[in-house]
Amino acid sequence: MFLCGPDTRSWSFELPPGTQVAGIRFRPGAAAGVLGVDAAEIRDQRVVAEDLLGGRAAQVLDERVAAGRDRLARMDVLEHLVRRREGDFDRDGTVELAALVAADPAYGVDRLAAETGVCSRQLRRRFDHTVGYGPAFFARIVRLQRFARSAARSPRCSIAELAVLSGYADQSHLSKDCRSIVAATPRTLIDMLPRTSLAVHLDEVRSVQDAAAKDHRQSAA
Questions:
Q1: C or N terminus of the chain, fewer CB within 10 Å?
Q2: Residue 186 has pLDDT above 70, yes or no
């Protein structure tokens, strides 16, 4: 069992046939508060559970997950662990700021700093600690994800049209990010993805903190 840190490059792996896995997804920045880690220190790393929870706690967790009767039961064990530890997973509001960037990648550092009253340098430090990299790089990842969704939904569009729809200045801007993050051209990236289900899959992915955030909004109302 391990935690995938925030990545600056795409990666993939293969599992033997018949392997069953269970996992949970953190909202950008939430893992730092829940697990008490500096996200920048685990950037591009896979950290084993023992290093995060301690040997005994990791062993108990592994046994409980293994004892789950099906995938949903195993996921319930993982979600229970996170909910028990999360408390206030967004103490300084950085997770909420990351959500703003995720909703609009054009939300630049200067605008975020102006609206929060925090200087740009301090804002970058907070993002580094909580999200794993600065808001500018996070926005690049979000734009590339938007491109993948747009390509799945609009297969008749040209690469240039998809680039504009996704928030890029032009096709060369998109190509630069594709080469940097996934080491592929935009066309190759599209061909690598399961086009028939990609748009639905990316929109349906939820985070374990979503329920907590919803409960918080309801109680505030």
A1: C
A2: yes
Write a three-state SS string for the chain.
Answer: CEEECCCCCCCCCCCCCCCCCCCCCCCCCHHHHHHCCCHHHHCCCEEEHHHHHCHHHHHHHHHHHHHCCCHHHHHHHHHHHHHHHHCCCCCCCHHHHHHHHHHCCCCCHHHHHHHHCCCHHHHHHHHHHHCCCCHHHHHHHHHHHHHHHHHHHCCCCCHHHHHHHCCCCCHHHHHHHHHHHHCCCHHHHHHHCCHHHHHHHHHHCCCCCHHHHHHHHHHHC
Q: Are 118 and 135 in contact (CB under 8 A)?
A: no
**CA separation for the pair 192, 173 (Å, rounded):** 20
Task: Domains for the chain: give ranges and CATH numbers.
Answer: 2-86 (no CATH), 94-204 (1.10.10.60)
Let me know: does 195 contact 22? Beta carbons within 8 Å.
no
Chain segment 192-210, per-residue pLDDT in tens: 876 544 444 555 555 544 5
Give per-residue pLDDT as tens, 134-169.
999 999 999 999 999 899 888 899 999 999 999 999
The two tokens of residue 160 are: 């240039």
